[in-house]
Design a protein that fits this description.
Helix content: 40-55%
Strand order of the largest sheet: 2-1-3-5
Distance between the termini: 57 Å
Shape: globular
CATH topology of the largest domain: Rossmann fold
Number of helices: 13
Structural class: alpha/beta
């Protein structure tokens, strides 16, 4: 049996788990190629207009795979941490795809709860039974998949750059270089290193989140806010670059919380959708890099402690 796995949404973070699980069960894998223009166009054509860019891209990956597999995996990821949820788009993703794309093979859409072993076992048994009836083999496949995921490391932590920025946003916006037009490479070419939330210490992020009026119940909101707040408070970065999908509800909340926390700290928000032009992104990144460089020179010249001085140029 050939299982199709779309290379979209949280694939970049959790592909070691899913690919190892299915291969341990004896399935052959068909993984869609990295996002490209054809995949994006296919997603735009079949997905509802109101969906965000990453969901449209996921639809494009499914369209690319539908004729290449016997069983299509559409992850319905519900929870990654106890007491939290992720974006609602994941809860209804299978229904969106099934009602938007015709001619699909059989699909795997079991709810995925990763906050407990009981939840993982339930998912594994229901999913694995589509391929084999051997419960012992399914259990062994789950254990191998968990071990594979624990060995996997992701994220950016560029060293040796005079200026570093916190690169923040939902992981599928950060690691799909087609969606974000390879923002990391553009920043590196301008002499700026990037740091992502995977390099942050949970013990440092927790107090920042705890200081909020109410703990966010969205995992993406908690982690992104904690990462930016901790990085800025400890002086590890000189700026923040936030990649946000146009019309993302969670991002609209996170950005307001972040702005309230960091004040006038340099921050560039890049809103992306299928109409975003690379030339405009390049111009904004170059202007932001120039502002960071000039601000650094002024602070170094006037203040040994790097305080914000009244004679500094406004970043606006």
């Amino acid at each position: 049996m050939k299982v199709g796995i779309p290379r979209g949404l949280l694939y970049d973070q959790y592909h070691p788990f899913f690919t190892r699980f299915f291969t341990e069960l004896g399935a052959e894998l068909a993984v869609s190629p990295p996002t490209n223009r054809a995949i994006l166009d296919a997603g735009i054509q079949c997905c509802v207009d109101e969906a965000c860019l990453p969901v449209k891209v996921f639809h494009g990956h499914v369209s690319c795979l539908k004729a290449q597999c016997d069983l299509l995996f559409i992850p319905r990821i519900m929870r990654l941490y106890r007491g939290e949820y992720i974006c609602p788009k994941f809860c209804g993703l299978p229904e969106m795809v099934l009602n938007s794309i015709y001619g699909l093979p059989e699909t795997i859409t079991e709810p995925f709860y990763a906050d407990s072993m009981a939840g993982l076992r339930k998912w594994a048994l229901r999913t694995g039974s589509r391929i084999t009836r051997d419960r012992r083999r399914i259990k062994a496949a789950l254990e191998a998949a968990i071990a594979e995921q624990l060995r996997f490391k992701t994220g950016y932590d560029d060293q040796g750059y005079p200026i570093r920025v916190a690169l923040a946003g939902h992981p599928y916006n950060l690691y799909d270089t087609f969606i974000n037009m390879n923002v990391r490479k553009k920043l590196n070419q301008l002499g700026i290193g990037v740091v992502t939330e995977e390099s942050a210490d949970e013990e440092e992020m927790a107090p920042e989140v705890a200081a909020l009026f109410k703990k966010p119940f969205w995992t993406f909101a908690r982690k992104t806010y904690g990462f930016i707040a901790a990085s800025v408070a400890r002086g590890r970065v000189q700026g923040v670059v936030y990649i946000s999908s146009f019309a993302c509800g969670i991002d609209s909340v996170i950005l307001e919380l972040v702005r309230d926390r960091i004040g006038d700290f340099p921050m560039l928000v890049l809103k992306i959708d299928e109409h975003t032009g690379e030339a405009g992104v390049d111009t904004r990144i170059e202007a932001f890099a120039d502002m960071l460089e000039r601000s650094g020179r002024v602070e170094d010249h006037h203040s040994p402690h790097g305080q914000c001085l009244s004679c500094c140029e406004s970043p606006v």
